[in-house]
Amino acid sequence: MREVSAFSPGHITGFFQICDEPEDLLLKGSRGAGVCLSKGIRTTVRLEPATRNSLEVKINGCPTAEAVVSEYVAKTMLSRARGNHRVLVEHRAEIPIGRGMGTSGAGALSLALALNDALDLDLSKEEVAQVAHIAEVECRTGLGTVISETYGGMEIRVKPGAPGVGEIVKVPLGGEYVVVYLPFGQISTRTILTNEFFRRRINELGGTFVNELLSKPEPEEFMRLSRSFAEHIGLITERVKAVLKEADEAGLPCSMPMFGEAAFSLLKRRDAEDLLEIFKRYQVPSTVSEAGEEVPGVILAEVDEQGVRLI
User: Fold this and answer.
1) I want to staple 132 with a disulfide (CB 3.0 to 4.6 A). Which of 96, 109, 198, 295 is the partner?
2) Within a 10 A sphere around the Cβ of 290, how many other Cβ atoms?
3) Is 294 helix (H, G, I), strand (E, B) or coil?
4) CA-closest candidate to residue 132, choices 175, 221, 70
5) CA-CA distance, 207 to 67, in Å (whole number)?
6) What CATH class does 1-311 carry?
């Protein structure tokens, strides 16, 4: 049995523009901005020769039949391999699922990279990431997360599309910034991306804000625009509003991620402790989901500058 592991950072999107008009899936995507996290998804694949292809997926040790994006990636990669294989996939989530931290894209991306190595497919990093991007677009779980997680850092997505097609501008942070995150509940990306009202609200500001951030590519401007965008979209819940209000009173930049019922900030390390204290007053006690995933009360993460990689 061959075993390979890969890691993809999580990712928070502050604002974006939907760009899914092209028929070519590699051209579909988004323009926008966000930041990659030192916490993400670690994926291990174990495979052995078999008379026919088979796949089993576990998330945090629990078997699941609902990992549609992982199934899409695995089937695509297996279709390019020689022979048949029995494949066991183990996703280990260091961040909560479905709460705006890019877990779907990170799972797809880390799985594609691990299978590329395990199956000796010899695809480039961009070709591997394109498989994950197409899986996300087809399953309607994301548009720009994969290209962001491929390269890491704080990014501005200036041209939509998959890695190797779309373009990003990375904003140097110099290790001075961290991400603080307070998760509450889940918001379905698929539901938002297929809702005409929210699609219209998103595209009213998303593209304009990309251009504004390009003229002033700084974390503080990213947070200001993210907050304006979140308020414009209209998804901020009452408990998130309460957190944002107190953070505002303390002079700490804060917004809601796209998409999760949560509060987050990309801010200077020296200010993180003050925001952590505010977040802790509102945090929900750590729980374990049905998928065996621990949902922590508050998350503090470094900014991941490397992007997806074998480990």
Assistant:
1) 109
2) 7
3) strand
4) 70
5) 31
6) alpha beta
Mean pLDDT across the chain: 94
Instruction: Tell me if residue 169 falls in helix, strand or coil.
Output: strand
Decide: 139 and 189 in contact? Cβ < 8 Å: no
Distance CA 231, CA 247 (A): 15
pLDDT tens per residue across span 115-162? 999 999 999 999 999 999 999 999 999 999 999 999 999 999 999 999
**CA angle, corner 110, sides to 108 and 85, nearest 5?**
80
What amino acid occupies position 82? R
Q: What is the pLDDT of residues 269-302, one digit of tens each?
A: 999 999 999 999 998 876 555 445 556 689 999 9
Parse the chain into domains and list their residue ranges.
1-311
Distances (CA, A) of 241 to 113, 235, 296: 39, 10, 20
C-alpha–C-alpha distance, residues 296 and 299, integer Å = 7
Question: CB of 258 within 8 A of CB of 102?
Answer: no
Per-residue pLDDT tens digits for 233-248? 999 999 999 999 999 9
Rounded Cα distance between 296 and 213, Å, is 31
Dihedral sign, Cα of residue 35, residue 41, residue 46, residue 51 = negative
